[in-house]
Structure formats: C-alpha cells, structure tokens
Design goal:
heterodimer, A: two-stranded antiparallel sheet, 16 helices, globular, O-glycosylation ligase, exosortase A system-associated (chain A), ligase activity (chain A), ligase (chain A), membrane (chain A), WaaL-like (chain A)
C-alpha cells in the first residue's frame, strides 16, 4: 500500500511538473512503459490506466501546448507506420484471433510512441532527458536485480525483480538483454549530463548501475545475457579512448569475477557450447525450421502468435531404476505451441517476408545512420569528445547488443527497442537540422557578407 | 527492503531530473547561434535563460 502511494505520488508529481513544461509528460510515459509501476503496486495503483493517461497527456501536450519548431518526420518514422499498418492487417487475418489481438494491444502503442517520440525531441536537452529517463527506468529494475543477485536471490527463472510475474521487461532473458544494452547509454549520460552535476557522485552512481546491469544475466542465468556482454565488450573496443588499457582491465575484471560466479550459473553457461544436448536450445532450432516452412505457406504472415500452430513430436530418453533393474525407454513426446525464441523468426512467422523486410530495414538503417553520424562528428572535431558522437555511438552499441540478443529471444516489438529507434530518429533529424544550419551559416558569409551588428 | 531502496533511489533521481528540467528554457527552445564549445560559452555573456537555470 505504501509502495502504491509512493509510486502514485511520483507519477502525480511528474504530471504536475508537466503543467509547466508538457514535455515532462513524454518522460512520464517513457518511465511507465519501461518500469510498469502498475505491476509493482498491489491494489490502488492497478485501478488507474496509467499508460493511457500519460500517453494521452504526452500526445495532447505536444499537439496543443508545445511548439512544433524543429519537429521533423523522418523516413524511419514512416517505416514504423508502415510496419504498424502491416501488423494491423495481419492481425485482422490472424490465425489465432484472441491472442493476436492481445498482442496487438501493446504492440501498436510501442510503435505509435516510437513514431511520435522524435517529434517531441526537438532540443538537445530533450534528447538528453529522454536518454536519462530510459537509463534510470531500466536502472530501477537492474539495480534491484543486481542487489538481489549479490545477496544470492538469483537462479534461472527465480530472480524476483520488483514484481511477481516473469513477463514483459521483467522476464529474465529480456531484462538481461535490455540491461546490457543500457550500459553504453548510462556511460553517455555520465559523461555528457547537463542535468546532474558532473561530479564524482554521478560517476559513482553510474559505476554501480553498470555493475548491476552486468549482474542481471548472472542473476537470471540467461545465456543470452552473457552473449550480449561479450558483444558489448567487443563493440566498446571500437569506441574507448585507450584500447589496450580497456582490453587489459576488462580481461582482469573477467578473471577476477569468475571465482565469484555461482556454480549453477557456470553450469548453465557451459551449455552454450554443448547446446545439442540441451532441450531448450535444440527445440529452438526445430521451431526456427518450422517457421521457415510456415512462411513458405503463409508468405504474408500468420498474424501475432502464429507459433501456436506448431507441434513437434520427438523421442526422449527416460531412464528408471537402479543397477541391474535400470531401464532405458524411448518415449514419444509431442509439444505444441512452442514460442519462436528469436525476434527474426517471430517477425517471419507473424508478419511474413514483407513485415520482416520492413523491420530489418528499420533496424539496419538505424545502425547505418548512427555510423554516419559517428564519422561526421569525428571528421568535424578530429576527436570523439562531442555529445553527438558519443550519443550516436551509445545508441548504435545499445542497438547492436539488442539485435544480437534478439536472435535468441522474441523481443521484436518491445517498447525498449522502439525507444532506441525513436531516439536514433530524433538525433538524426536534430543533427540534420542544426548542423545543416550551421554548415549553411558557415558558407553564407563567403557569398553574401552580413553587416556586423557588434 | 531492497525494493524500497531501489525505488527511492531511482525515483528520487528521476524526480530531481524533472525538477531541474522544468527550470531550463533550453528544454523547449534552443537559442540561435549559441557558441558551440564550452570554452566559448564561459566567455560569452550569459543569457537570461542560463541565469535562471
């Protein structure tokens, strides 16, 4: 009950502050979409449609109260809307109507918000504020899980993260991927923040947050998380200033960490290599094969949750008894409705070739746009100190980590991914607008001298 | 206990951030032709927006 009041008080405060500057409502929506405070509370808070209230506030605040100066609609936002329309169409013709509509219910919000978010992020401070809120919102879950992992509350499917259910952002593999993807964003905030004091306390908090994020895959024993950590480790090699120092420190930290890892975690991670003997991994391969065949029959996609159509029959080995009485039996097992466990196959099965192509284009363009921003600012400044270079790098790293994690987890429509996409669109369009203007201003005096006003 | 600590910490920081944000005019409008580097900014006369923030 106390928690409910606390969370409601916090949301009330954000709504109130939004009266002065409506952009705060956008931040409130980001917070609610990631943390889902209505799931943390027990009674009172669940009776409010928090997500809807803040979404309406954010949208109406932008439409009616905010200036539209600098709002640009980018190509990728258009792609998001095409994907949304396509998902709507496949949902209408979905094989499993009930579950398809249940999924549509949250997917459309994530997509609409991603298309809307860049319109509101017109200034540098707004972009920074949005990244800060994403980091702190994910941090709420990650710090909680990190502390619990340190005190031994972890285990596969056992780590209790603020809520009692193992779904949405609170599912083990999803939060592992998201937590690792958040690390570069957290580091960017610490380096370039203008909201918090640039002080050792900010760095101390960030160090704690990064450590907590690294602990999430340990706490949840999610194998995907370990792969994400390795990917991020390699990606950081590209962007850190002192490569050798970083590589040395990272390997030292890794060696120092191994003795502290719980045995259950080490055992589970060893199954990454010997995945053929592991049921969870081998059914994945079967489901993926099934999806490829399914897409051949349904090239336009089967709608959300089309995986429910699958069923697999295979033999398992069951041993019973001891010593001479030991019996080995082969039993035929049939499993139905195995989830995709991969975002790429999730897209292929649910949205067909076209949906997958749009989604891939949306993601691929993001990686490419961030790369071209990195080059542009490196060329302009000769070093990597600008906030734009840093943010493009952080967003690209977060995105790539997520896209690798997405190979093993069905997270194709998670709001977090679409927030990354929205932030990328915002940064891209901000740079085009502001830098383009500065570039033109630089060229202007040559052709047409402006009288000095000084 | 851990839950309360985490909620207080991150929500406190978000509330602090929101409080600081509403006091800054650059949140909604960016001044035209502001000096880009921090070095130049220190030397440029402070705008009313910055003094308020």
């Amino acid at each position: 009950m106390l928690k409910d009041l606390f969370l409601l008080g916090f949301i009330g405060l954000l709504l109130l502050l939004g009266l002065k500057r409506p952009f705060i409502w956008v931040l409130a929506y980001i917070y609610i979409d990631i943390v889902a405070p209505q799931k943390i509370g027990w009674g009172l808070i669940q009776s409010f449609q928090l997500s809807l209230i803040t979404f309406v506030a954010a949208f109406a605040g932008w439409l009616l109260l905010d200036s539209k100066y600098g709002s640009r609609f980018t190509f990728r936002q258009g792609l998001i809307l095409v994907l949304l329309a396509w998902c709507g169409m496949t949902t209408l013709g979905a094989e499993f109507q009930d579950s398809a509509w249940a999924k549509w219910d949250w997917v459309w919000k994530a997509l609409i918000f991603a298309a809307f978010l860049p319109l509101t992020l017109r200034t540098k401070l707004r972009i920074e504020a949005a990244v800060t809120f994403v980091v702190l919102a994910v941090g709420t879950i990650a710090i909680n899980g990190g502390i619990k992992t340190v005190f031994g509350g972890g285990g596969y499917g056992e780590l209790r993260l603020l809520v009692d259910e193992n779904s949405g952002m609170y599912e083990g593999s999803i939060i592992s991927t998201v937590a690792i993807a958040t690390i570069p964003l957290a580091l960017w905030v610490a380096r370039h923040t203008s909201i918090f004091p640039r002080h050792w306390t900010t760095w101390a908090f960030t160090a704690g947050l990064v450590f907590a994020c690294l602990l999430i895959p340990v706490g949840t024993s999610a194998r995907t998380g370990l792969i994400c950590i390795l990917v991020l480790g390699v990606l950081l090699l590209r962007s850190v200033r002192y490569r050798f120092l970083y590589a040395g420190a990272a390997s030292l930290a890794m060696m120092a960490a191994v003795p502290f890892l719980p045995q259950s975690y080490v055992e589970r991670m060893e199954t990454i290599v010997g995945f053929r003997g592991d049921q969870s991994a081998s059914t994945r391969l079967v489901v993926w094969q099934w999806t490829i065949d399914y897409a051949k029959e349904h090239p336009l996609g089967g709608g959300f949750d089309a995986y429910r159509a699958n069923s697999f029959t295979y033999n398992t080995v069951v041993t019973s008894g001891e010593g001479p009485m030991r019996r080995v039996e082969y039993r035929e097992v049939t499993e139905t409705a195995r989830a995709y466990h991969s975002s790429y196959f999730e897209l292929l099965g649910e949205q067909g070739y076209f949906g997958l192509a749009i989604w891939l284009l949306l993601q691929g363009l993001g990686v490419w746009h961030m790369e071209s921003l990195r080059r542009r600012f490196r060329r302009r400044d000769g070093d990597n100190r600008s906030w734009q270079w840093g943010l493009a790098t952080a967003l690209q790293q977060a995105h790539l980590v997520y896209l690798v994690g997405a190979v093993f987890v069905g997270i194709a429509y998670q709001p977090f991914l679409f927030m990354l996409v929205g932030l990328q669109c915002a940064l891209w369009s901000y740079v085009q607008r502001v830098e383009g203007r500065e570039w033109r201003a630089k060229l202007a005096p040559r052709s047409r001298p402006v009288p000095s006003t000084a | 206990m851990v839950d309360i600590f985490t909620l207080a910490l991150t929500h406190g920081l978000m509330a602090f951030a929101a409080w600081r944000l509403i006091q800054r005019d650059e949140l909604d409008e960016e001044g035209e032709g502001q000096p880009r580097s921090r070095w130049l900014k220190k030397r440029a006369p402070t705008s009313p927006a910055e003094r308020d923030g």
